[in-house]
Design a protein that fits this description.
Layout (H helix, E strand, L loop, with lengths): L13 E2 L6 E2 L14 H24 L10 H23 L4 H6 L3 H30 L6 H4 L5 H10 E5 L7 E5 L5 E4 L5 E3 L5
Antiparallel strand pairs: 1-2, 3-4, 4-5, 5-6
Helix pairs in contact: 2-4
Length: 201
């Protein structure tokens, strides 16, 4: 084996894998699998860091995959809201008394059931809007117009015209009272179910 290139008085124990210079034990750069001199190790490390920076820049330039906006639970609530909104739109476009009811000349009891169902649907939709507002802002909406702001204007106006009283409350609790058939009232129970004044609709 030749003498070390840097220390001619010492015997070489290895050869640099890049420049092929004979190296004594002291001249071998530590931390590498194969023998390499200090100059070549510095150059190789610099090249490696440059490649890492280039790769990182390329990764940052690549657009991130789209994130899911709604969780499965939120999608379920949204679908329920859309269903109720669909019913609301159909009833609003059909007028205060849907033609199917008047055409059939339904008995008074059946008309009242339909009116109660309509009021209950209104209450459920308002509750869903208040819950969505609370999840987004961390508190119940200060008034009903804030809760209904995301709905189409005609739906929002209809729901506000049916509402007799709204109290924001604290936590998940809030007070809601809507006009029901025959001067009765629909209110939400503590569990959020719509109740006809004095009992379940």
């Amino acid at each position: 084996m030749e003498q070390c290139q840097t220390h001619p008085q010492r015997k070489a124990v290895a050869v640099c894998r890049r420049c092929q210079a004979p190296l004594c034990e002291e001249c071998c750069a530590p931390g590498f699998d194969e023998a390499i001199c200090f100059d070549c190790s510095i150059e190789e490390t610099g090249n490696s860091l440059s490649r890492q920076e280039d790769n990182q820049g390329a990764e940052e330039a690549t657009p991130a995959p789209p994130t899911r906006v709604f969780s499965p639970a939120a999608l379920g609530v949204l679908l329920l809201c859309l269903l109720v909104v669909g019913v609301e739109v159909a009833l609003i476009l059909g007028g205060a008394n849907p033609p199917t009811v008047s055409d059939r000349k339904a008995p008074a009891a059946e008309k009242e059931k339909i009116a109660v169902a309509q009021s209950s649907a209104d209450a459920v939709l308002i509750k869903a809007q208040v819950d969505a507002y609370r999840k987004e802002h961390g508190a119940n909406p200060p008034d009903l117009s804030a809760a209904l702001a995301s709905l189409p204007p005609e739906i929002s106006r209809h729901l506000q015209s049916r509402t007799l009283d709204y109290k924001p409350g604290t936590g998940n609790a809030f007070g809601l009272e809507l006009s029901g058939p025959g001067g009765k009232k629909i209110r939400l129970s503590e569990q959020g179910a719509p109740l006809l004044e004095g009992g379940q609709p």
